[in-house]
Amino acid sequence: MANHSNPETSVHRSEALQRKLAFKEERKHHNVSFIMMILLTLIAFYAIWSDKVADSFAVLFILVLAVVQVFFQLYIWMHLSHKGHDFPLWGMAAGILVAAITVVGIAGMIWTS
After folding, report:
1. How far, in Å, CA of 99 to CA of 105, rounded?
2. Do 77 and 69 contact (CB within 8 A), yes or no?
3. Number of C-beta neighbours around residue 18 at 10 A
């Protein structure tokens, strides 16, 4: 009996292996992102609790940590790193731009008052 390997079966096996490896890599990214978010939260709490950060710098420090966490949430957990997510990315970028312009405008109105 001759051993004939079916090329279709080997293609399915290689695709399954690629999916499994991709899942493992994605799981690793999720775990690292989760740990980073927990660490950033602990850093924020510790910085304010211990008075290691000056009061004048505390709000900016917390906002920077929050922006980093938003990046982790959107990019990793909401799968925006995957192909085909260009439209939501452009929508969020436009929303961030409008929010930034609004904040600068309101701050400018308050500043000149």
Report:
1. 10
2. no
3. 10
Query: What is the token pair recorded at 35?
Result: 């740990």
pTM over 0.85: no
Note whether 6 and 27 are within 8 A (CB).
no
List per-residue pLDDT tens for the chain, 113 residues long: 555 556 666 767 788 888 888 778 888 888 888 898 899 999 999 988 988 888 888 889 998 999 888 888 877 777 676 777 777 778 888 988 999 999 999 999 998 87
The CB density around residue 74, as the number of other CB atoms within 10 Å, is 16
Contact 37, 43 (CB under 8 A): no
Please answer whether residues 47 and 58 qualify as being in contact, where contact means their C-beta atoms are separated by less than 8 angstroms.
Answer: yes
Check if the beta carbon of residue 46 is closer than 8 Å to that of residue 78.
Answer: no
Q: Which two three-digit tokens encode residue 108? A: 């400018």
Whole-angstrom Cα distance, residue 16 to residue 2? Answer: 26
Write out the E strands in 1-113. Answer: none
Rounded to whole angstroms, the Cα distance separating 25 from 31 reads 10
